[in-house]
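Honest question from a wet-lab person: if I give you the sequences of every part of a complex, can you actually get the arrangement of the whole thing, not just the pieces? Trying it with mine:
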Amino acid sequence: MIPSFSAEVLKLYKRPAAWVLLGVALALSLVFNYLVPYAGYLNAENERAAEQILAGMRMANLIPNSIAGFPVFAGALALILGAMTVGSEYGWETFKTVLIQRPRRLSVFAGQVLALAAAVLTIVLVIFAAGALTSYAIAVIQSEAIQWPSLVDVARGIASGWLILMMWCLFGAMLAFVFRGLALPIGLGVVWILGIETLIVTVAANLLDSAKTLEKGLPGVNAGSLVAALGGAVDGTPGVNNTVGGTQAALVLAAYALVFIVVGGLVLQRRDVV
Amino acid sequence: MAVNEEVLVETKGLSKSYGSDVVAVDKLDLTVRRGEVYGFLGPNGAGKTTTLRMLVGLIRPTSGTASVLGLPPGHPDGLVRVGALIESPAFYPHLSGQDNLRVLARYAGVTKTSIEGALETVDLAGRARDKFSTYSLGMKQRLGMAAALLKDPELLILDEPTNGLDPAGLADMRELIRTLGSGERTVLLSSHQLGEVEQICDRVGVISAGRLIAEDTVEELRGGGYLLVTASPLHLAQQRADQLLGPEWVTATDLALRLDVDAESAGRINRELVNAGVEVTELRWVERTLEEVFLQMTNQKGDDGDS
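Yes, you can. This is the full assembly:
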């Protein structure tokens, strides 16, 4: 498994598209959590509104700020990362080149999952680090004292953010294993995140009791609930909600991740590579 | 070439079907011995690639068994001793040739030093740092060969390695395969190019519609040749040849006679024809080509495979 992990890391590290996804995730986080609010702060109509906006950008809000976009936008990017990593192997037919070297199929699969886990952790850490630096810079500009969140809270925030993105990433990877390609998994996955879940939550759940029950088990809803449990604003942040509690949300996301791993591994193990 | 009787690849009743209608490989019994260059010959769609994919564990047989280096196909302990190039070379386009081999070396668990050696062997060291996507087809094929050689394998499985190459690339690749197969290494070469197999291989298995229809040395498959006689007057020459050999061994063409005899008879036949008043202007031994044998076996009309 270690040789496969090492090979997968090298492939991802050298892949420009992986860096583009990291850059886009980082840019989205900084623009919508700091740049746009700071512009709003500078143009605020009154002092009270300005203070409210400024409070949102302080270091104390590092965790909810960093993971607020994870249920939807960063989640979609993580899904693309997973689908791209696996789907390209089918598109370029490189699975056959890899599998005739030596490793067992499940070793290759485990290497891919571990490499994706490392890549997702990198994305989360970069977003947290950039958020912290930006909050620090704003505090210095405003000549304010810095109130750091506790290390335990930061660790919990990073772990939760990683769980959300990893779940979406594995969803993309699983779709790529199932459909043996790249375009369809990305299309279906993004439609699910941005469209289908929203339809279930906003339309079906208001009409059907069964849909209301189903809503509590949806991956995006649970991702949003986990963000809310860590202080994410429920109003106005796409995907963030308080439908279920934080513990349940974390368990449901972990269960989804496990299911995606099992399905992906089974498909690779059992199917012919043509 | 150092062939011995140790069997490296063996299939027994190996079959692969897709659904109930398509039988890609049908009860194939194949034997490749250590040290030989084995040509796996067949027209396009005969089942060559499907067979090779089964031998490296990419696809599973519907029935039958196969062993490679004494192990089931796809077993890691077997694969580490096998180098393979299956169909077109498939690599990561955003990586350089060298980085592609680094990735594969990590999977295979071989050292980085083997990368340089493999690149030198296929004469690609000068372009090793260029991206794979910028390579010509010939360079891609050579990188595929380098990947197959990374593990310094006992057994090389090459699936149509000369496909798409220009004449110079074709000659280089054939020379490389010949060199690789000249020592202890065993080569299983799939091809539909008859000339290639004839030039390179010690033994040949002919596959058609998923079935192995012949397996023997190139010489045995060709089964000798015939005497071609150009003479005047031709009808007199034919008359005398019929008397000497029997009409079933004599075939007249527009300008010559084809005599199905062994090469040693040439002197005697020449003498008899001259004594009968025939002017013999040409008498030569013609080897049957593998193409003739192949087309006869596969019942083809001629323009499917190159020769």
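Two things worth pointing out. The first helix of chain A runs from residue 2 to 13. Chain A has a mean pLDDT of 94.
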